[in-house]
Design goal:
436 residues, alpha+beta, 3-hydroxy-3-methylglutaryl-coenzyme A Reductase, Chain A, domain 2, Alpha-Beta Plaits, 4 domains, 4-stranded antiparallel beta sheet, 16 helices, 10 strands, binds (R)-mevalonate, HMG_CoA_Rdtase_cat_sf, hydroxymethylglutaryl-CoA reductase (NADPH) activity, 3-hydroxy-3-methylglutaryl-coenzyme A reductase
Amino acid sequence: MIKGFSKFSQEQKVDTLAAQFNLPVSFKETLRSHHHRELQGLYNQFAENTISNFYLPYNVAPGFVINKKEYAIPMVVEESSVVAAASKAAKFWSAHGGFSTKVLSVTKSGQLFFTTEWSFEELSALMPDITSALRCSVGEITHNMEKRGGGITGFKLTSESLVDEQTYCLMVSFETADSMGANFINTCLEKMGDALVTFLIQKNDNRHIEINMAILSNYTPECLVQCALSCPIEDLQAYSGVYSPQDFALRFKKAVSLAKHNPSRAVTHNKGIMNGIDAVVLATGNDFRAIEAGVHAYASRAGAYASLTDIVLENDTFTYTLKLPLALGTVGGLTSLHPMAKLSLLLLDEPSASELMQIVAAAGMANNFSAVAALVTSGIQKGHMKMHLSNILAALNADPMECQKAKKYFSERDVSHSAVKLYLDAERLKNKRHEY
Ligand code: MEV
């Protein structure tokens, strides 16, 4: 067992791992070749036990028109065809009214769990005094947030009687302006926990009170954004393939209904949304794990996991909407530290957190629209395989001429790693023979 690893220098960590797990020389070489020449010191500060960097592609989907403003959206994603799908939808919808987005609410919440001999009724009667004591305990911290337009917006006491009769949750609502606010909320909650103990002990020091935990909730159903796409059904010709635009719209509607009622399909449907969402969340230095957790909980709010999108076909018009919670920030945390996150925000014209919520929602909707459109027409493999072919060719070190010929050859054939390798080996052999 390796002991004291976190105290080692970066070089010692690598040497220790190589020795302990009998790793080849290439282990160290690959780590070293992924170091950043100038900024490694900065990257080392983001987490613990950093020994190198893990690169993901930094891509851009241009041509988004969101509420009449044009954006080129940065997307960090490794899955082939996600950026192509987003760009294709962006291009189509920019000519059909663009993405109409709206922030519906910006409230986040935190939870203070505690166990006490006080009854729910007694605590409820004391709530006005408790909340003013708690507000007072965090006055200094909330003062700055209030100046930026945020602060504490409410308190709600609930009983956790399913756990035990003496355990409660004080749910505190916050607005955090342009920051994601995790640190602000957690700091407030911990201080309020101490204040709650002090308050109740001052009231009656014979009764037991203990804090179980104080932490923000990543369930943010009141930090909601909505995105809508709408056009005459006949304009959908560009996507309808062998179908008429009307049939395409009906097939699309059925796909959305299936994702509403079949949870297994809903998960995949929503994954298509998250392809776009996570890519922008990552590119802007936001916490994609928090977003994922919150979005999927929201998708289950009615008791069964369901699609996040809705569709209406009425008066010859196709209207497609997405609603989801996105607790994002554009100041603080990694957004202000990571050079690429800063660059993304620059590319997006330094958006507020609310504007970023709308951009991210549009990216999710673009990806989902392209995915569902492909699924109900040609299927997704056609587009996927084109990108997959490029990846396989790159892995097999194909030169530009080989790539061009392979793409032509595979335009009518099934793509697989073995088929491409077989084709390339044969081509290379043929060319070698010609050289002699
Ligand atoms: C693949 O990354 C995403 C899709 O599976 C989404 C969907 O099925 O709607 C194509």
